[in-house]
Structures
1.
Amino acid sequence: MAISKKIAKSITGASWIRKMFEEGERLRKIYGSEKVYDFTLGNPELEPPAAFKEALKEIALKPVPGMHRYMNNAGYPETRQAVADVLAAQTGLSFDQNNIVMTCGAGGALNVVLKSILDPDDEVIILSPFFVEYKFYIDNHCGVAKVVNTTKDFTLDISAISSAITPRTKAIIVNSPNNPTGVVYDADSLKELGRLLEEVEGKVGNKIFVISDEPYAKIIYDGMALPSIFNCVKNSIVVTSHSKDLALPGERIGYIAFSPLMENAGLLMDALVFCNRTLGFVNAPALMQRLVAGLQHESVDMAGYQEKRDILYDNLTALGFKMVKPQGAFYLFPVSPLPDDVEFVMAAQKHNILLVPGSGFGAPGYFRIAYCIDKQVILNSLPAFKTLAGELGMTR
Ligand code: PLP
């Protein structure tokens, strides 16, 4: 079979989530879905908010002529303006539609941005633990991923980032609220990053972009507010989507927003539009663009996610699992009780608990729990976690 050797290698090297998902399917056939505790996928089980369904009904009943045609590769002006208005209100900066490109999700947005800014062998700093696709996305556009560790509580390690910067550094990807850790970076650390980059740019002579990957921006707990990267870093670009906040991952709708403070903004916009086109996305889905324009202030029920976080965090820490308490997203990233995280995940599987080893996120010694699943399944899983902890001789 003549597939690319490089792709064949990538497929075998990064298939943890897929492997565990397939294992879940197998176990569900044997034990029934209520007895399999599948914490592997970041695929929200929630339905989109009622306002989405209303808007969908409305447009189906009163179609707009030409609504399924191609449009400007950047997206509909009114949708981009709706996004820009929210960002302007949040940041106090003068966003308008010329700062926004509608995309096929955050994944599409990341590829468009990386294609637009990278020359071959340019370096992109990613922070460990990281969303596994970053390495592939960077490689798609001939860049080189440079992995920098976060601190022991998964916050930004500014001096480690500083040491990793070279004259070839083109961008840093940050992701807050974070997948897989659930950590939210505070304004002070983001401002420190902004100061570091201005200082370093003066020395190395080229611009370093911060690409802030924010699909979980609205999933944030305990009354916290997410600091805007635009108020902390001058050359910042946000990539995001409505996959998680409106529970629309299959609809592939997201956007790129870049700072109005950016120099040569027109050139960047031209590059983003060109790359959205030539990567074959052409434009973000037309129907979804029309719908999300009016839904920028809507979201799924966040209180439900916070309750699930609390159930798992409280019960698992009581059993002796060690973890940073997540402040957002819908993931927990505890320390593996066995030194080998893959061995631990296999031990959990024997109790029908499906997890993803930290190795899959560049962080061996941990495991990830995705709790965007039914609360009852979470409650049903607790006795299985207790048996597992007992079997491993865990004590508080
Ligand atoms: N970035 C992070 C950190 C994610 O967790 C995900 C999806 O799980 C994405 C990007 C891609 O999301 P989408 O392309 O559905 O917007």
Note: The two ends are 52 Å apart (CA to CA).
2.
Amino acid sequence: MSLTGPIFETLRRSSAGAALLEITESLADVHVVGGTVRDSLLGLTPREIDLVVEGQIDELVEGLAARFSGSVTYHDRFGTATVEVDQERVDVAQARTELYRTPGDLPEVNQLSGVSIDDDLLRRDFTINAIAVQLSQPGRGTLRAASNGYEDLVARQLRVLHDDSFRDDPTRLLRLARYVTRLGFEPEPHTRSLVKEAVGQEVMRKVSAARIGAELRLLLAESDPLSGLDCLDRLGLLEDIASAAAGSKTDPQSLVELAWDRQRAKDALSLLPVDGDKAALLVAICLVVAARNSDVSTDLDTLRTWLDGLEFPTRQREAIVSAVIDGPLLADRLAEAQCPSEIASLLSGKAVEAVCIAGALRSQDRARRWLAELRHVKLEITGDDLVAAGIEPGPGLGKRLSIALARKLDGELRGGRAVELAFALNVRDIQGDDDP
Ligand code: ATP
């Protein structure tokens, strides 16, 4: 098979790709690029198809949308568009060069017209992403790559395209951690020294907290986020992430600290049920580990402000906050719980992420039992059954149900609905309006 054969195989396997191969028989200057080429050459399935056109994108986008029956979204900022249908996505961009006027800010599109694919490749983050394959005729299948692009892919290493790369866009440090995690690649020696230099110059502090948050969430969404965090820790980037959107260094109350403890994070993740939030849990464990290692105690407002600065959605922010606040408290109390109903009374209503933190810190078996088993235990009867049997609605009714549930959790109420109803109707120690 030719060098670029795997890319055409990838395209033929998807409906968008097949449509693309037909359309580009008669369209000029279309190239498949970036992650699509990289992943196909590595034998992986690309997440989307990335295309670059040397010239206007409209004809390709409209042709693709019509043939592939996809919906089109144009993104004004860079003259790019996305065509999507079901799970498939094609990103189309006009070849461009970019200019970083202020380090850390988003780049300006420096030039669109007359830009070649070779120029476009040079604006990219790493050489392994600066590879393109021509789709249009004549010349379909021609491979173009920035210097070392193909060789670096074969050698499984990450190399920036120029020495100012991390200064121009420090989020590339986080992207590097993402590719280390996802692909298992390592930076080559010169790039490694540029990383060190950039971290030493604290370049990340020039980036908006929102951009850092976005990259951090992408990293945490990778299939092995622990190795992503290993990498951030190794590169010394956790401190910079903590400083993003945090307050002044002179006021310890307004400081946020992150620290890494792989084993604790692994223990916490091993407890996380499918309805839990992996990213929230990992951020929380870094905050908790840091708090245990130092005397900085971040107050609640500072923590929320920091998470808002990083643009964590409200639900995720609150999961992190409750895990950080409740997790360590629950760890000790949970260790003292004597029976399942005590575990339940401590943990019921708590965020699952807080329970995972408690388990990772101390009470792993109890946390696991709650998450896997006890929190799913329910009575077969409801308040309606008690009302139908003559109990007045009110606090006493709720108390009957909770006593019955506690008995059931402790294994003392077996036999299903009828047994539960008889027990709840006969509960004696009720302090309420409906005392029998
Ligand atoms: P993939 O690399 O699989 O497409 P991704 O989500 O990591 O996934 P995107 O963020 O979609 O990549 O970026 C697509 C391409 O755009 C990358 O392959 C890279 O060449 C380029 N790119 C993205 N962000 C940057 C950046 N900050 N600096 C330079 N190039 C970038």
Note: The longest helix spans residues 314-336.
